[in-house]
Amino acid sequence: xxxxxxxxxxxxxxxxxxxxxxxxxxxxxxxxxxxxxxxxxxxxxxxxxxxxxxxxxxxxxxxxxxxxxxxxxxxxxxxxxxxxxxxxxxxxxxxxxxxxxxxxxxxxxxxxxxxxxxxxxxxxxxxxxxxxxxxxxxxxxxxxxxxxxxxxxxxxxxxxxxxxxxxxxxxxxxxxxxxxxxxxxxxxxxxxxxxxxxxxxxxxxxxxxxxxxxxxxxxxxxxxxxxxxxxxxxxxxxxxxxxxxxxxxxxxxxxxxxxxxx
Amino acid sequence: xxxxxxxxxxxxxxxxxxxxxxxxxxxxxxxxxxxxxxxxxxxxxxxxxxxxxxxxxxxxxxxxxxxxxxxxxxxxxxxxxxxxxxxxxxxxxxxxxxxxxxxxxxxxxxxxxxxxxxxxxxxxxxxxxxxxxxxxxxxxxxxxxxxxxxxxxxxxxxxxxxxxxxxxxxxxxxxxxxxxxxxxxxxxxxxxxxxxxxxxxxxxxxxxxxxxxxxxxxxxxxxxxxxxxxxxxxxxxxxxxxxxxxxxxxxxxxxxxxxxxx
Lengths: 262, 262
Hints:
The structure is a homodimer. The first copy, chain A, is of the alpha+beta class. Among the domains of chain A are: 8-60, Orthogonal Bundle (Hypothetical Oxidoreductase Yiak, Chain: A, domain 1); 135-262, Ribosomal Protein S8, Chain: A, domain 1, CATH 3.30.1370. In chain A, 38% of the residues lie in helices and 16% in strands. Chain A has helices at 8-21, 26-41, 52-60, 89-107, 124-132, 185-194, 214-219, 227-243; strands spanning 71-75, 79-87, 111-117, 137-140, 162-167, 173-178, 203-204, 221-222. In chain A, the strands form three sheets. In chain A, strands 1-2-3 form a three-stranded mixed β-sheet, covered by helices on one side. Chain A has a three-stranded antiparallel β-sheet with strand order 4-5-6. The termini of chain A are close together. The model of chain A has no long low-confidence stretch (mean pLDDT 94). Chain A binds chain B through residues 76-79, 106-109, 111, 136, 164, 166, 174, 176, 178, 180, 225-227, 229-230, 232-233, 235-236, 239-240, 243-244, and chain B through 76-79, 106-109, 111, 136, 164, 166, 174, 176, 178, 180, 225-227, 229-230, 232-233, 235-236, 239-240, 243-244.
């Protein structure tokens, strides 16, 4: 892999240019550029501008809509269920976060669930927004199935990440943002590109045997972090993000643009 | 260890009798008996009637009050912060759960934090209450420090358990209730009583070396489940249960009645 150094501003402008060409509204484009470049600046390159082709390919194939047509499905004073109208995940999830913050300002807590939307990027982005308003934030999502249940070997769950964050009095914050698989999917790709092995316990190959070759792991299945306890969280996140919202289970989510090996 | 079989009703009556003798109000006594016996019936003997001496000892020593004098510290329509007045944990936490359920009925979600109370027992008890009203439940607590941060060897955190549960259409439910240490503290005691070894990775001895002898583990420090990811949860639970509520951090919580080896 080769690296090229660019200024954050340049990366942001490039990002804006790309998404404008795909018919994404200006406001949403700026939101996406802000999100992706923040991910790079936080050192989470897997969720930075490297995702541009992944998102634009989704628009090109008609799998994700460039304009987000959000609809309220159900609402109470502290909770809203939204339908994202199959829009790009980042702008839809950003609007959902703004709505949750508004609700929290009035009742003390705001919870917004969204079904039917694209990949939402780095969860810490939304948590940072909540923290910016003085709130504790929590977010979780499911994703295309790449992980087995504890003791199993079938792809049933996404890497089902979660993020929680806390504001601090001195203006700093504590943010946890992690996949609930032992290793994030993208990091296995990176290991493959670097020609590195992965540890046992991270993944199984297609036959359900421990995989240490990242390519075999990629074709096989990831394992939950923390054994049966971590699996409990994986399952809880799956229920919160699919059954509760009337949204797709991980195993029915189509991959917009699979991560490929060069 | 020897086991004696008793009817649930008998265990409950015995429990009622014990706590009445310690001046606990009748309503609270029934609540505690219901809680402890339910734990036994769920197979969680570590949180069943075996806890009676632990709780009564706390009352006898004046560390926990037999009557719970609960005070509202802060309130919004979806959130309440309570001060438990150093009352017995189970009745205080049960009342807090009832309040959270009431709030959830009106705004969609109810969150109640409680500071200054005794050991709350089995978290699944409160989650089952929420589920009984058709709600998803989440609960977490901190506890006397027995766990090290990831990479550390000092007792900074309790076993900081969490529980989450979901009602299902067919009347059944899914409940996760777990310590965020690899192994619960009590299970290490059980291993010691049975003369069994524990796995490496569960605990460190006093010098910070991996402990497989449960007695050494008991004198040393437990480790978070799931490595640095599990540790992230441990820390999040600690913030939610101490800093957020103005309650004690795990390392300042006094042990009411330490678990002892025979």
